[in-house]
Amino acid sequence: MAVYRAEPRGLKRHNMTQQRSINQRLNRAGSLTVKKEIALDWAISWRNEQSELMRKLGQAVKDDDFDALCIITGQLKAVTDKRFTALPNVIEHLTKPNA
């Protein structure tokens, strides 16, 4: 399974305890180019996270592990809800004129 990775230029990476929300990162970004790079990195991260959970889900089915199926399904739902909730804000940031 392919893993996609984006390395936006000029962006400082944070560890997980310091990770800012996509909205915070887009608010801090200056140019539309940087905002697009942030949004692309976010989308690739979303894809990777979903793909990994789907891989785990497939493995749990293969192993007939009902407990893992329940846990992974809950994780998949949480990731999907979180990202879809943020998506309108990402679109708004990418379509509004720079102030």
Account of the protein in words:
This protein has 99 residues and is an all-alpha fold. It has helices spanning 22-28, 32-62, 66-95. It starts with 21 loop residues before the first helix and ends with a helix. Helix 1 (22-28) runs parallel beside helix 3 (66-95) and helix 2 (32-62) packs antiparallel against helix 3. The longest helix is centred in the middle third of the chain and has 31 residues, at 32-62. The chain has 3 helices and no strands.
Output the radius of gyration.
Answer: 16 Å
Q: How confident is the prediction overall: mean pLDDT?
A: 85
- Determine the oligomeric state from the structure: single chain
Tally of discrete structural domains: 1
Distance between the termini: 41 Å
The largest pleated sheet is described as: none
Helix proportion of residues, in percent?
A: 55-70%
State the total count of DSSP E strands.
Answer: 0
* Strand percent estimate: under 5%
Helix count, per DSSP? Answer: 3
Determine the structural class based on helices, strands and strand pairing.
mainly alpha
Shape: elongated
Residue stretches low in confidence (pLDDT < 50, at least 5 long) are: 1-17
Query: Could you spell the SSE succession in H and E letters?
Result: HHH
Concise account of the structure shown:
The protein has helices at 22-28, 32-62, 66-95. The chain is mainly alpha-helical.
List keywords for this structure.
99 residues; mainly alpha; disordered N terminus
Sequence-ordered SSE layout with sheet pairings:
Elements: H1 22-28, H2 32-62, H3 66-95
Helix pairs in contact: 1-3, 2-3
